[in-house]
Structure formats: C-alpha cells, structure tokens
Amino acid sequence: MRIVILSRNRRLYSTQRLAEACEQRGHEVRVVDTTKCYMDIASHRPSVHYRGDKLEGVDAVIPRIGASITFYGAAILRQFEVMGAYPLNESVAITRSRDKLRSLQILARAGIGLPLTGFAHSVDDTQALIKLVGGAPLVVKLLEGTQGKGVVLAETHQAAESLIDAFRELHANFLVQEFIKEAGGTDIRCLVIGDKVVASMQRQAREGEFRSNLHRGGTAKLVKLTPEERSTAVRAARKMGLNVAGVDLLRSNHGPVVMEVNSSPGLEGIEKATGKDVAGQIIAFIEKEARPHRTKTRGKG
Question: What SS3 state is found at 159?
Fold first, then answer.
C-alpha cells in the first residue's frame, strides 16, 4: 500500500516508528509536513499537492496533526478522504476529540464515567460553578490546552474564585472539574486500536505536581487494567469515532472516569513502558481495514 503520514517533524519518535513499521511490512510510505500541503478542491479531480508534487494513488493516511494546526490539518485530511484514501482516524473524529467541551458532552450522552464538570460564561455564575463540582480543591482547564498545559489546580475556594475570574478577564474558554484526590497524582493511558486496548501504562506525576503527563516530568510503568477500565476505554474511543486513541482514565471512588480522549497519542512512553510494538499493530489494523472511500462518519458533524 501507499501510505502517507501527516507530520510536521519526521524525527519525532512516533512518526519514525510508524514509518519504520510501514517499511518493515512492505509498504511505500511518505512523511509529509501538513502545513506544506495545499489542495485543489475540484469536483471531478480533487487533489493534494506537496512541495510541487501531486500526491496520487494514496491508499491510507496516518494523521499526526498537532493541536496548533487542527483546523488546517483536518482540512487536508478531509481532502484525502474526498479522494478515497482511508484515514486511520477521520477528520470529523479528530476535530471532535480536540474540542474538550464537545468530547465530554459526547461521552456524557453515552453514559461513560466522567469527573463532575462545569462550564459557564457569566461572571455571576462563579459561585454556582464551584459548588457544581463539589467545591475546592478543583481543576480549571483551558479548552485549548494540551499535554497538561493550561491545567491548574485551585486548592482553596478563594484560589478557585480568583483563578476563574482571571481566566474570564482573559476571555478564555475553560472547564471546571472536580479534583479526584484518591487518584494520588496518577492516571492510566490506554492505547486503543479498533475494539481493543492493546497497551496500557500508569503515569505518576513528579513530586509537587498533580499533572502526570510524561512531557511534564511524569514517570510511567506497566499496569493491569480491570475489565471495567478496559471497557470504558474502548467505549470512549468508539463514541468519539476514533480507530486509534489514547484514552486517559483516573481511578476514582466511583469507578474509572475519562479525563481525555487523544486522537494522536504518543508512542514513545507506552512502547517503552510496555515493550509492545504498538506502531506495528497500528499498521496491521490499516492493512485489515483500509478500503477506498471507507469512512464511518461521512456527512456527520
């Protein structure tokens, strides 16, 4: 197969591993910088061009689209979908997952466990918002944040008020969530491919930090999932419409709760923590599922 990997940096671990897995399995692979692509939106011969070349005969596309270019990256991926290429994750599913508020609403509608979460616009609702999530300590999250950026813990009621008011002064969109104290600074990253969790790891925040992201100095180790955690991760990915997803769970007193569903999960931490060839399993999934014009969410918003 001819496979295109949309990635701005071919030297990133995840991009390298996916390209290696493609080559090892006998596929022709090309890594292209998403922002250097441009497209011809024609009704009869739609096309994508890269550095002057027309990208033709593409069987499958692996999107590794950074959060800062979600809009343009989704547009390029959508053009490949129009041309009939199989997307590992579809453009609609990626944009859903990148919208924190929308993704939580989708998961809530499906009955999937979530932390208590509040969202409001008016400054008059600050007290009600704090009360809604059980009071301080609580977590305030920017809707546009990634890798733990824009996530702040307010340990007291006064701190929560000040933080919420400050974010409003900046005209920022944010969520307020309950702080799951019993998680103890740990979360679980489940790597879902298709209808199964193929690898999982427990991430531990460094001392003095409550965010367990590896980019923020967290550590990772192998973890055994409960059947409920496994089922929750698979259902969350499915409801978001993602074939491959990193589902982040917290172990709360009322069962597993989903913190985020990531459409471009990093492979380095989870491959090293588990010793599993996740990249190879992703390419095997594409081999099994790829068909021309095969998209599940076509026409859906």
Answer: helix
**What's the CA gap between 95 and 154, in Å, rounded?**
29
Given 130, 159, 179, which residue is the final one in a domain?
179
Residues 160 and 174 both lie in one domain? yes
With a CB cutoff of 8 Å and minimum separation 6, the contacts of 222 are: 200, 201, 202, 273, 274
Token code pair at residue 245 = 């997803």
Instruction: Read off the CATH number of the domain in which 13 is found.
Output: 3.40.50.20
- Same structural domain for residues 24 and 101? no
108-120 pLDDT per residue, tens: 999 999 999 999 8
Torsion of CA 121, 124, 129, 135, to 10 degrees: 150
Q: What is the pLDDT of residues 4-49, one digit of tens each?
A: 999 999 999 999 999 999 999 999 999 999 999 999 998 788 999 9
CB–CB of 65/71 below 8 Å?
no
Cβ atoms 104, 77 nearer than 8 A: no
Whether residues 37 and 83 fall in one domain: yes
Chain centroid to Cα 39, Å, comes to: 25
Q: Coil, strand or helix: which one is 63?
A: strand
Whether the bond into 137 is cis, omega within 30 of 0: yes
* Rounded CA separation 233/195 (Å): 9
